[in-house]
Amino acid sequence: MITSFSPAAEGKVGDTITINGAGFDPTPANNSVTFSGVTASVTGSTATTLTVVVPSGAETGPVVVTVDSRSSRAKTFRVLLATGFLSISSVAIDSMASNHVFFTDRSTNDTLYEIMPSGSVVNRCSLNEATGLPVDSSGNLYFGLGLTGGISGQLNRYLPASTTCQTYVATTKVIGETTASVIGAALTEVGGLNVYTADNENARIKRTDPTLAVSRLTSEPLTLSNPTGMAISSSGGSLYFTATNSIRSLPIPGGAVNSTLVRNLVGSPKGMAVTTDDKLILTRASVATNAVSWYDPASSSNPFWDLATGFPSPPVLQGVALGSDGGGAFLVVAESTRVYRLPKPSVVLSDAADAALPAKIVADFTPGTTDCLGANVITLKAKFNPSSLIPDTTPRQLVTWSAVDPDDPSDDAAVDTNGSAGGDNIQALGSYN
Q1: Facing residues of 17 across strands?
Q2: 181-217: pLDDT as tens digits
Q3: Which of 293, 209, 218 lies closest to 260 in space, CA to CA?
Q4: What predicted TM-score, i.e. pTM, was given to this entire model?
Q5: Which among 234, 352, 364, 418 counts the fewest CB atoms within 10 Å?
Q6: Would you give the DSSP letter of residue 239?
Q7: How many whole angstroms separate alpha carbon 77 and alpha carbon 111?
Q8: E strands present in 30-170
Q9: Is the peptide bond before 7 cis (omega within 30 degrees of 0)?
Q10: CB neighbourhood size of 290 (10 A)
């Protein structure tokens, strides 16, 4: 069994930690330890302790010890990408910079940082209360400066190719404004580069179009989150953003007079990212809630569930970003002082023995009896990965099983309209939730 980790239940790749528990083998080589399925090097052992190195590719998730073919229950270990900061506001993954992670740290640090593959953290430029970090197709990052009082609502960008920061536009170019405070940003390149910003001082959502003209998209005053999570749908037709304890939306590029309420939340939403199938990933932070959550804004049943909980609180969760590399799809989540890497949640199909199966399987066996007293049975299971996912009780995450008959050819024209040709004769036998 695993009882605890020393010095803590979190650390960076390459850190040496101690696993405390019982039933371990005093010979290090006789103990197998995995972090989210990645095997770790065991450098020392007793019957009650194991000294291990956090392996490359590890993510926040279950640690399991196996001795003599017997495995412990999993215990969660949080894998850190960076720690020791003051007030992280935003995080991004730049696919054009080898999936490097960037984040902004406000407060007295006021800096844009880049996390290198080696784990080192590099200072890229000094900022003034920066938030945002959407990434364009060239790999450039955009961020707003959130200071108020005589500030022009400046929107800057970082150019990885030259490792320089530069001014992009002053968002007070709207007639009648003298100051602005940018606390969130998102962008789309549908029809040219359009950058959307949340202006805290003027309580509006704004658009900077490809000509650098700035306009207000909302006329109603908004109480925005700080930082404001912002994300754009994959089609480029909707802008989602966080405001107080809610998610709101605007049609884009032109926007509308007023934003639309998408969902009220328990726990103030901070960061936001959108998946390729237009699901929202959120960070929520309050006295009672510190979670990474998933939400489908297009579903009439409004499914919503927590992907990850149990983070230390305080500090509270802030930014979130989605990425993919050799280790698969993943999330990067920032608290105010730390940055974590988490596996992207998924639904895993397995057989009765819990062996993983592909999403599509073929069951090939002799026909069962026809007297309704006997039959061939296949047992399939669906479970969440990682196992720490906590779906809401109402509604639960929906899993649909679809059964089809793939036989070819078929004498039944309703099944196979062109005999042995085409291979297009699959017959749907039914779906089950």
Answers
A1: 52
A2: 899 999 999 889 999 999 988 899 999 999 999 999 9
A3: 218
A4: 0.79
A5: 364
A6: E
A7: 28
A8: 31-35, 38-39, 41-45, 49-53, 61-67, 70-71, 75-83, 88-94, 100-105, 111-115, 121-126, 130-135, 141-145, 154-159, 164-170
A9: yes
A10: 22
